[in-house]
Fold this protein.
Amino acid sequence: MFEYFPGNYVWNLGVVATLNSGGLIDEVDRACRPIRELGAQGADVGTKEFMASWAAVAEDLATQAAADEKAGHLRTAGQKYLRATNYLAQAERMQSAKKPDRNVFYRRCLELQQKAFDLIDPATTRVAIPFEGALLPAYFTKASDGPAPVIIMFNGLDSTKEHMYSSGFPQEMAARGISTLMVDTPGSGEALRLLGLTSRVESEDWARACVDYLLTRDDVETDKIGLVGWSLGGYYAPRAAAFEKRLALVVAWGANHDWGAVQKRRLEREGENPVPHYWDHVLWVWGETDLDTFITKAEAVNLDGVVEKITVPFLIAHGENDRQIPLQYAHRSYEQAVNAPRRDLRIFTAAEGGAEHIGLDHFAHVRTYIADWITDVLA
C-alpha cells in the first residue's frame, strides 16, 4: 500500500482511499505536505491539523468551481465540486466524535456533493427512506429510464454515502444497467451525524426498510434487488440477507464475520484501527458511553449461526493482507454459507492489488470484480 506517512496506517488508508476514489495526487499532496511531520507522531495526534489542511485544499477547489460555474463551464465546475467533497469527506472521517465543529464540515460535504450532482450527474438524486418514524438519508443512482435491477449499498463503521458515491461503484453498476441505492444506515454517515441514529445488531431492520422503499418506485425490477456491504457492512449485509428474503443476492465486501472478536483484539492492540480516536468513535456509532458495556454488546456482532440462513447467491471478497479483519473470517463465512445456491470466495492478493482492507489499495480492481459478479448473477 502507498504510504505517504510512513508507519501511520490510519492516515495512509485515508490517503489511498482518497486517491482511489477520484482524488488527484497533486491536490492530495498539497493537503498532506504541511502535516507530514505530524503524521510521524501517530494517528490521533494532528487530526485537527489534518482537517484544516485538507479543508483548505477543498475550499480552494470550491472557489475555483464557483468561478467556473459563473463562466458557464459547468462540467469543469462539477468535477471540482466532486473532488472537494471527496477531500472533505475523508478528512471529516478522521476527526474525533467529540470534535464540536465536526458537523460543520459534514454539512459542507453535503452541500458540495449536491452541487456536483446538479452539474454533472443528474441521474443521482438524494432520497429519504422511511425507517421507524425517522428517515434514512440516501443517494439513488438511476441506471435507466425503465425498470432496472438495484443494488442496495451499506457502508461500514466510519464511511459515508458520499464515499460510496466517490468510490466509482455506482457508476460501474449504472454502466452495466443496474441502479444503486447508497444508504447512510443507523450508526453511519448522515444518519448518525445529523439524525442521531445509532447502530444495532439487527441490520435486517434497515434492509427491510430499503426494500420496502424500492418497491414503491416504478423504475425498479422488484425481483432483482441485491445488497452489498463493505467493511462493517461485511457484517450488516450478510446478516440482513439471512433474514430479509426479498433480496436476490448479497456481497460481503470484506468478511466481517466476527466483529466482536475484532474489538477484543483491538483492546490488546492487535491489528489496525480504521480511524483515529477509535474507542470514542465506536461508542458514538453504537450509542454507548461505557467501554465494557460496548464490548459485551459487540459480542453479538457475529455471523456464526447466521450465514447458514442465507438462501441467495453470496460473494465474499477479502484482501489477503487486510490488517483490520483477519483473512480467516472470509473462510469462515464461506464454509458456513451452506444453503446459498451459489457461494464464491474471492481473495485479492498483494501481487495483483486489492489486498488491503476492502481493497482500498486498488479499489478499481475490486469494485469491477464485484460489479461483474453481480451482473453475472442477475443475468
In short: The first helix runs from residue 9 to 19. Strands lie at 124-131, 134-141, 148-154, 179-183, 220-230, 249-253, 314-319, 343-348. Residues 256 and 323 are 12 Å apart (CA to CA). The domain at 123-379 is CATH 3.40.50.1820 (Rossmann fold).
